[in-house]
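Appendix B, record 7
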Amino acid sequence: MPATVVVGTQWGDEGKGKVTDLLARQMDLVVRYQGGHNAGHTIVVGAERFALQLVPSGVLYDHVVPVIGNGVVVDPVVLLAEIDRLTAAGIDCSRLKVSSAAHLILPYHQALDGAMEAARGQQRLGTTLRGIGPAYADKAQRTGLRVGDLLDAATFRDKLVAAVDDKNRVLAAYGADPVDAGAIADLYLGEVASRLVPLVTDTVALVHDALDAGLDVLLEGAQATFLDLDHGTYPYVTSSNPVAGGACTGAGIGPRDISRVIGIAKAYCTRVGAGPFPTELHDETGDVLVERGHEFGTNTGRRRRTGWFDAVLGRRAARLNSLSELAITKLDVLDTVPVVRLGVGYELDGRRISSLPPGPADLARVRPVYEDFEGWCQDLSGCREVGDLPEPARTFLDALEAQVGVPVRFVGTGPDREHYVQLA
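Structure tokens (predicted):
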């Protein structure tokens, strides 16, 4: 049974958690394939809100095996704290599996993240300071420690001492305090190892065994297409590959194991931190989107920048991810907006273009070209069928679908897990 990928098509925060939660009802495994705890999924179940950072969304269903794949970087202290919160809320986390090949985030990664970001001054990237980038850098430099290293205390300690010696020299160059290898070893080989090791397994074999048995597997990423290290608005990107292709390397499967790629997009756009944003709003409408959409980071609490839906980016995301369909979230946030705009192209130096400019700096100079649509100005939260959607909302969705070139299959009409419309 081929797998399904859920991927963000903007700059993250598109509501992947809600769509993953919806799809997980029919899944047997839900696999997180990249990123760290610098991104989160919020799922609303009745009066409860679950803010997930590392644990895959499928944990909320008793029949699902949640899997943290080899492409994820894991801060085990954060992971265990998240497990404790979920357990206290009555969620069984004993089914969770963690790849032995996933890399560990260690205290020196966070120290380096803060020191390097501070040194950038006005050129700072807007990193979450969680140590994600330095952990991936160590992975690329082949000096990282992996979850499986916790299985051998002597090897872990030797690798850790060598790494700390190197990192402390770098931290000293930044004028930052050193870290203590002994204290890190005591924590990671003590409580962390005793609780994490029982969850560790060969997740590649686990996923392939599930596929061979005809089980349903869902692959979820963090962040989104335009935060991708290769294809995003570099350098204002994350340190891994959220695009659908990253699901192959991050979960250990091949392209032929995937049959469905669902792109998630808000009915508008948001992004956190620095970087170009062609359709960004700096007016009252932008404030309305922040307030109605509760546009603050799940983990960081940072206010998100808001703007109109950008179909130029949507078309590129459709190509990069081989999207089979779209899920549009937060359409209800636009309920009070009298005129809804759709970015359909750019102008650059007086010339109309319909795709991204080749020069990265040019994206910050483009002027968006819009099509305007009548707002529906009514509450969508009660909509459950296509016929319940007001005509102006359907007209907007039809235009968005035509511009991106991918059919819209799901539409979010409110914050709760039941607030959605499924299209044919």
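Remarks on this record: The mean pLDDT is 93. The CA atoms of residues 332 and 413 lie 5 Å apart.
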